[in-house]
């Protein structure tokens, strides 16, 4: 029995359990997995599943998205670009590349996209991050998009104070990455964790990437038991989180964490 849209409502928002588009060998297989296991959304990773300029492929993706009874959000490419870079050529090239991608996402029917900024800490500046995000936001906003910024393991968004300032100065929404927050430099230096990071952010958090932590090889690690992530799930629920991407890449782990998540969010919604 599949979830029906609007079955669960929390703070006037539909609770969405989402998986990464790259979970399976193809996006089509991921869609099938999502429907079979009662997920209601997919986060399309444009780094792992690029969207080309080819009109035939764009039409195929558009049809896939329009026909699947799922909500889609898009994670913009993030490797080999930096919109907050000190070098104006790198910064402007990165911005223009993302603008091209925004237009591709618009063609396939997307409305929400996730953005990285300031990861290259020593080569980036907070001021450049703000101005670049505002430029992208102005470009995307005119096309009906909502921009979301993710906290990372290092750089500008890895510290709750600078992350909060960035969100406030750009009027963007937050994607709270639990695994990044658990191992970021701020957490390690201050013996803190994702819950402490979240408590430092005085803005609503409606979107989350859920897993336990990211290791040194950038692999996402699943919680061993619900107690590992229960406090942060409860806090995110209190903050109004309604979009949950279980950002793991082993199907059995994804289903295990979905079951953990359901015990908190669905009970709360009811």
Task: Provide a compact summary of the structure.
It is built from ten helices and twelve strands. It has helices at 27-36, 55-67, 88-107, 126-141, 160-170, 178-183, 185-190, 194-199, 230-238, 251-269, and strands at 9-10, 13-14, 16-20, 41-45, 71-75, 112-115, 146-150, 173-177, 207-210, 213-214, 220-221, 243-246.
Task: Write up what this structure looks like.
This protein has 270 residues and is α/β, with parallel strands linked by helices. Helix content is 43%, strand content 17%. It has one domain (14-269): Divalent-metal-dependent TIM barrel enzymes (TIM Barrel, Alpha-Beta Barrel). It has 10 helices and 12 strands. The protein has an 8-stranded parallel β-barrel with strand order 3-4-5-6-7-8-9-12. A two-stranded antiparallel ribbon has the order 1-2. The protein is globular, with a radius of gyration of 18 Å.
């Amino acid at each position: 029995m599949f979830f029906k849209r609007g079955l669960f409502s929390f703070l006037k928002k539909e609770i969405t359990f989402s998986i990464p588009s790259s979970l399976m060998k193809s996006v089509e297989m991921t869609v099938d997995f999502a429907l079979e296991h009662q997920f209601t959304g997919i986060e399309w990773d444009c780094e792992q599943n690029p969207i080309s300029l080819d009109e035939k492929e764009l039409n195929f993706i558009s049809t896939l998205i329009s026909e699947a009874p799922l909500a889609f959000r898009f994670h913009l490419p993030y490797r080999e670009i930096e919109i907050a870079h000190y070098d104006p050529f790198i910064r402007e090239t990165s911005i223009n590349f993302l603008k091209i991608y925004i237009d591709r996402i618009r063609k396939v029917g997307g409305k929400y996209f996730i953005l990285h900024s300031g990861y290259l800490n020593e080569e980036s500046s907070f001021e450049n991050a703000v101005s670049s995000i505002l430029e992208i936001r102005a470009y995307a906003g005119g096309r009906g998009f909502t921009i979301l910024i993710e906290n990372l393991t290092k750089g500008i968004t890895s510290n709750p104070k600078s992350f909060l300032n960035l969100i406030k100065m750009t009027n963007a929404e937050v994607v709270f990455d639990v695994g990044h927050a658990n191992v970021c430099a701020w957490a390690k230096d201050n013996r803190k964790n994702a819950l402490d990071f979240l408590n430092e952010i005085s803005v609503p958090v409606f979107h989350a990437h859920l897993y336990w932590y990211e290791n040194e090889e950038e692999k996402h690690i699943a919680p061993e038991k619900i107690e590992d992530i229960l406090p942060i799930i409860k806090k995110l629920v209190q903050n109004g989180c309604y979009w949950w991407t279980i950002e793991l890449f082993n199907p059995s782990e994804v289903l295990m964490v979905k079951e953990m998540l359901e015990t908190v969010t669905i009970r709360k919604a009811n």
